[in-house]
Amino acid sequence: MADMNTSIGNTERKPIRCKAAVARKAGQPLVIEEVIVAPPKAYEVRIKILCTSLCYSDITFWKLKDPPGCFPRIMGHEAVGIVESVGEGVDEIMKGDYVVPVFIADCGECKDCKSSKSNLCSKLPFKVSPWMPREETSRFTDLKGETLFHFLFVSSFCEYTVVDIAHLTKLHPQIPPNRACLLSCGVSTGIGAAWKTANVEPGSSVAIFGMGAIGLAVYYDFYWTSKVAEGARLCGATKIIAVDVNPDKFEIGKKFGVTDFINPKSCEDKSVSQIICEMTDGGADYCFECVGMSTLVEEAYASCRKGWGKTVVLGVDKPGSQLSLTSANVLCSGKTLTGALFGGLKAKSDIPILVKRYLDKEVRLDDFVSHEMKFDEINKAFNLLIEGKCLRCVLWMD
After folding, report:
1. Phi/psi zone of residue 278: left (φ > 0), alpha (ψ -120 to 50 degrees), beta?
2. Where does the Alcohol dehydrogenase-like N-terminal domain lie (predicted)?
């Protein structure tokens, strides 16, 4: 259960001096230092971070030397916290509320946010920006007065952060912080992809591409796949096929619902799509690409059943990557190919549902946390993530 008695102090409308892990240079260890966090402006909220978890997207952008990479920056986008103060125009939450920040906006006002057909806010569209969403300014400076850039509108590697109200969701206080933070990005995305975007039905067959590749991508691929497998399990899929070159991941994947495994290196003279089509009598009902590789998107699409097969892309590919699909194939196969930012979830309405499902012991958030550390150990956590030695690492601020 979250501690709602966390001391905040009389800091409203004042700058706060606190500790942050600052990315000063691409790929270099984060620097634990004191920073200044400005008060929230209109439609903004300043929150005291209770704990933050690491996502491989933090690693990806931490390595980027060129835009959208930029430095110095406060990374982090999976977290949970307590509202310290609110700016003008904020009326849906108040000081002391327990909240989770999300990188994708849910303004509740635009045509997309009012529709059940999309979670892509058009008032505050998603982008990898170094600023606040409503104006290109920062709420962070170091002790020398230098601007520190934001990350994905959250910047949770700091004891306090300022987040737009459209990016905040109020939580039930019964879910503990070291589990609630997982709903800020990863678990929500994976479950949402199966639940909202694919709308997997009971009895369906599912194929997931990317259970843990080689080298630095080991954790990333398994991270997304485990979440999708959990979502497929919750939706009642009876056959969940994992595709990957690392057979060791199959045993771990079973915990999240995986029933079958295909190693592309052991397929001999058949393609992965041929094998999946044989296993599922014509193709999987739903395929999920979790690596971020155009050739795998094409293979996933080929693995889908004609007529109603649906391929959902979750992996982030290199900028400019192109798909090669013939027009005739698209026309005659009748399949669907779609992307799923944040799994298609609307944060303010869907995250509370996931919280309830966790409290009802349906969503197994506990299984995803392999490590818990103090915030000061963040560089150690980064190394575990890079080396593929952890599934989920949660960092406690206090």
Report:
1. alpha
2. 43-171
